[in-house]
C-alpha cells in the first residue's frame, strides 16, 4: 500500500509531466543547446524572483560592497602586509556571511529545482533507441519475492530477442530487445495473474523517455517521475529500459546536460539580475 | 552613394560565398570507381567466371576485359598496395615486406608505420605529465595517385586503402585500412577469459592474452586491457573493469562495461560496446569492444575482440577529415577500425573454432558492405576507391578446406567449409553487380586485386637453411630452446640472415651493426647464396623449394632505401612459404616442415605464380599489365599523364 506522501508525490509528478510535456515538447525540435538555453533563461528568471522575495537584499548588498571594498584595499595596500592580511580576512568573513544569506533562497529553491531537474532529465538525459540497436529490459524483483515466472509481452516491432534471463545472485530478470520500427510502445510484464506495463520509445528524435518505473520509494519517485508508480504490493520492484546517455554537444565538447544547464542558468541569472533589480 | 556601396559589397559577398560553396570543385561529370578486392586469385576467378558462378564479373569481362594483374616482388599486401598507391616499386616507396629490421639493433619492426611516444614530460612522483603528444607516422614514401586528381579539383574518396595509416590527408575523404592498429598499438590482440584452470598452459598465444577468472555466485569480474598509461612513469596497462553475471540454466550472461550492458547467449556475438579507460583524473581514452560468449558450462569462456579505436572519437587519426569516421559510424553503426578485422589469430591459437572465426569474419564483412552502400549512395562524381579485405583473410585461414592435399586438411571438419572461399567470391560478385547498376554511360568501374592465392603446404625456415649452409652462426649451437629475434646468433660470424617473409639480408660492414661482409664482396656472396637457394629441393615433394631469387639491384629502383632493402628477395615455389618463425629471427631445427597450422593459404611465394586480377566495364585508355602501372592507367582516365612524377621514379 502506497503511503500518503508517495500518493501525493505521484499526483504532483503527473501534473508536472503534463506541464513539462506541454511547454517543453514544442521546443524539442530545436538543437538541445538552444532549448536548454531557453529553459535556463526561464529558470534564471524564476530564481531571481525567488531570491528577490526570500533573501535579505539590503544585507546582501552591504556584504557584497564590503567584499568589493576589501578587494580594493588589497589592491591599494599591496605594499603593506598587515593591511593586506586584514583585508584578506575581511574578504573571507564577508564571503561566509554571503553564503549564509544565500542559504535561505537556496532552501526555497532546492525542492522545486530538484523536481524540475528530474523532469528535464527525462528530456535531455537519455538518447533514443534506434531501430536495429539492442536494448535491455531489466526487472528487479522485491528482495523477499522468491522465484518468479515472469513473461514479457511486447509488440512484434519491439523485436524481443531472448526469453527471460534470470541472473544468479541479483534478483533480476532481463530480456533483450532489438526494435525494428520507430514508435512509442508499451511493454507488459506478467507475473502470474498480475501485470505491469512500461513505456518504450524507439526514436532518435528528442522527447520524454522514462528509463525506470518503480513501485515504492520517495527518492526513486522524485528521480523517475515520468510514469505512474508500479502497483504497491507487486513482487516487481522496478522495470528498467536501458536508454543510452548521450550528453549535450557544447561547441564540440560532449558534456552532461546538467553541467550545461547549470552554467547557462547561472550565466542567465547574472545577466538578468540588474533587470530584475536583484543582487546575487 | 553609401547605400550603393553596401549593395555592391553585399552582392560581392554573396557571390563569393556561393562560389566558395559550389565552385571550388567543378564536377568532372563522371564517376570512376575502383574496387580493391584483396587476394582475389586469377585462376580461381577465371574458373568461377567460366562456370557461370560470377555473373557480375562475367559482365565486366565481356564489356571491358579480364586479365591477370602482375603483382609485386615480393607479392605481399603492404608492398603491393604501396606500389598501387604510388606507382613505384618497393625501392621507391620503401615498403619491402610486412617486417623490416633495424640494421643498428638487428631487431624486426612493422614496416608501414612508426609510432613515437610524446617527447618531454613533467615528473610528479610516480606520475608524469606529457608535454607533447605522441606521433604516428606512415613510412610509405612517394606521392599517392589521388593527389594529382585533387590538384586538378577532382574529388577523391579513398576508403580503407591498405598502407595508408595514418591517412594521407590529401584526399577529399579517407578512412584508413590495413595497417591501422587497435587501441594498444598492435595489429589486433584479443583477450580470452576462462575459468578453466589449465587452459592454454604452456601454449604460445601470439596475438591474444588469456585471463584466468573465477565464477563466484554467478558473477565474473575481469578487466579489459588498454595501452600503457602515458601518465605513469613505469609502464602499466590501463584497465576497464567489467562484470559478467550468469544465468547457467538459460545459458546467458549479462556483461556490464562502464554504463553499458549487453545480454549474450552462449554462441552469440555482441554488438560493439564503447569502453573508456581512465588515465588520470579528467583524462580517459576510449575504444570499443565486441564480446563472444563461448561457453558457460563446464567453464566460463568469453572472448573479447581487440579493443578497437572508437570511430566516434578515435585516439589516433583514422580518417580525413577527422570527423568522417564518426559520420560513417553514425550512419551505418560502429565498425572495426583495426586494419585487418578478421581475427585470424583467434583461430590460429585455437581460441576460436572454424565456425566461430567464420561468424566473426562475416560480421566484419557485413559492416564493410553496409558502409560501402552508404559511401556509394553518396558518391556522384570523381574517384572512389573502396577496399574489401575479407576474402584475403578468410582465404588465409580456410584454404585448406578446398585442398585435400594440405597437411592440415581434415575431411570431417573441412568438408563443410570446402566452398567458403567460393561463397565469398560470390559475395563480391554481388557487390560488383550492385555497383554496375549505379553507373552511367560514361562511368568506369575497375575491379582489381593485389595478388592471387594458393595453398600453403610447406614452410621453409630460411634462417635455419642459412645456419645449415654455414652463412649464419649460433652463439650456442647446442641450445635447445630458440629465443627468437636472433637471440642466439653470433653476428661476428654471421654473413647472412633472413627477416620478413621473403627478405634475405647480408651482414654488411658499415650497414649492419656488427657487419662482417665487405661491401665489395656483397654481390658475389648474394649470387652464391641465390644459386644455392635455387638448387634447394623439398625432400617431401622432390621438387624445387624455391623458383626465383631476385637481387635487389635487378628488381628495385632504390631511392635512398638501401639500408632497409633486402639484398635478396626469395620467391618460394608455389605451395611453399617462408615460415613465421624465420620471419622474426627464429631458428627451428629443421629447414622444411609441413604447414599444419590453420593459416593454410598464402601468396608470399614466386610472384609469377600468384597474380591478381583486373577487370573493368570498358577497356582502359591506358592498359595496365601490373599493379605498378595501374594508378597511371586510372589517372589517364581523367586525362592526367606522367604518373609517377619523373623525380620520384628513380
Give an account of the 3D structure.
The complex is a heterodimer of chains A (280) and B (650). In chain A, 48% of the residues lie in helices and 19% in strands. Chain A is α+β, with helices and mostly antiparallel strands and 280 residues long. Chain A folds into two domains: 31-125 and 250-276, no CATH class; 135-241, Immunoglobulin-like (Sandwich), CATH 2.60.40. Chain B has three domains: 28-95 and 140-181 and 321-455 and 600-650, 3-Layer(aba) Sandwich (Alkaline Phosphatase, subunit A), CATH 3.40.720.10; 183-315, no CATH class; 458-594, Gyrase A, domain 2 (2-Layer Sandwich), CATH 3.30.1360. In chain B, strands 2-36-26-1-25-9-10-24 form an eight-stranded mixed beta sheet. In chain B, strands 12-11-22-21-18 form a five-stranded mixed beta sheet, with no helix packed on it. In chain B, strands 13-14-15-16-17 form a five-stranded antiparallel beta sheet, with no helix packed on it. The termini of chain B are far apart. In chain B, 50% of the residues are buried. Mean pLDDT of chain B is 93; it is low at 1-23. Chains A and B meet through β3 and β4 of A and β15 and β17 of B.
Short description:
Chain A is α+β, with helices and mostly antiparallel strands. Chain A has helices at 4-24, 32-54, 57-76, 81-124, 218-223, 257-276, and strands spanning 135-141, 150-153, 165-167, 172-177, 183-191, 194-202, 212-214, 236-241, 248-250, 253-255. A five-stranded antiparallel beta sheet of chain A has the order 3-4-1-8-7, with no helix packed on it. Chain A has a three-stranded antiparallel beta sheet with strand order 2-5-6, with no helix packed on it.
- Write down the secondary-structure element order of chain A: HHHHEEEEEEEHEEEH
Q: Which strand order do you get reading across the main beta sheet of chain A?
A: 3-4-1-8-7
- Tally of helical segments of chain A: 6
Q: What is the annotated CATH architecture of the largest domain in chain B?
A: 3-Layer(aba) Sandwich
Summing up helix and strand content along with how strands pair, one would put the structural category of chain B as alpha+beta
CATH names the topology of the largest domain in chain B as: Alkaline Phosphatase, subunit A
Helix content of chain B: 25-40%
Low-confidence spans of chain A = none
